[in-house]
Amino acid sequence: MALVRDRGQLKLGLRLPERRPRFPPTATTTTTTTTTTEYETVQVLGHGNGGTVYKVVHKKTLDVFALKVVHADSDPMMRRQIFREMEILRRADSPFVVKCHEIFEKPDGDIAILMEYMDAGTLDSFSKNGGVFTEQTLANVARQILNGLNYLHAHKIIHRDIKPANLLVNKNMEVKIADFGVSKIMCRTLDACNSYVGTCAYMSPERFDPDSYGANYNGYSGDIWSLGLTILELYMGHFPLLASGQKPDWATLMCAICFGEPPSLPEGVSDEFRSFIECCLDKDSGKRWTASQLLSHPFCSSSSSRQ
């Protein structure tokens, strides 16, 4: 097995922006004098956005981790995103948010984040590899995501890119929110959050068209819209705003999201499931339920008894 890139010494204790979310003081990242040479690569889990994610094993303990490496020559915007992600991950302390164990900075400028390894990949890959999402399973999935969002929103964090590919899962169907590169840390309650970041397919109507749907909207509700689309997609087996197999483009997505009717579930589902999706996908962001409210929705509140 190949070692992770070169054997250069790394330094810890990265300097982060001064403004930080008010996470609990117990949420810290290990800062022992460790280097990536203590880990051995098992396989590449994915590429993209100027970096690579590896499955690695600690040579002495044989513990398995995911190692996200962002290369020094990556796009400056990607570098800013990774520092934002580091700021959030190193302080997050929730069983529903992927855990960050250590952060390394190499002399050549590469940055590596050592995170917990989720052995079933993402909800997107799980679905594409034949995983089946029944209504009962999705109730449990939705409850876990909402617990993660409720934690983040309580600490003034908006994810802005909730989608199946950013939700990790293990073989026990434990789901955790990941990939905070485009998240926004709200410094004030009324901070605007209507920039075009994240995956446009999962953007809410007010993010696509703030003039029509209200500028300076409550950004937290955008995460709820994305959650609704995610749960609907997992149930239907394809992106719900387009026909199965249709390739999305910006204009088609904008028309579907801003001018089309909100997507709905097919016949045969429970009233609780249909109501839950409607509470997530109300085009009026002010009428969308919050993460806290949705946790008490009958679809989620009874999910533990359905398993």
UniProtKB/TrEMBL annotation:
It is an enzyme of class 2 (transferase). Keywords: ATP-binding, Kinase, Nucleotide-binding, Phosphoprotein, Serine/threonine-protein kinase, Transferase. GO terms for biological process: response to other organism; response to stress. Pfam families: Pkinase. It catalyses: L-seryl-[protein] + ATP = O-phospho-L-seryl-[protein] + ADP + H(+); L-tyrosyl-[protein] + ATP = O-phospho-L-tyrosyl-[protein] + ADP + H(+); L-threonyl-[protein] + ATP = O-phospho-L-threonyl-[protein] + ADP + H(+). SUPFAM superfamilies: Protein kinase-like (PK-like) (SSF56112). SMART domains: S_TKc. It comes from the Eukaryota. ATP binds at residue 68. Its EC number is 2.7.12.2. One of its GO terms (molecular function) is ATP binding. Residues 39-300 form the Protein kinase domain. One of its GO terms (cellular component) is cytoplasm. Belongs to the protein kinase superfamily. STE Ser/Thr protein kinase family. MAP kinase kinase subfamily. This is mitogen-activated protein kinase kinase. It comes from Helianthus annuus (Common sunflower). The gene is ATMKK9.
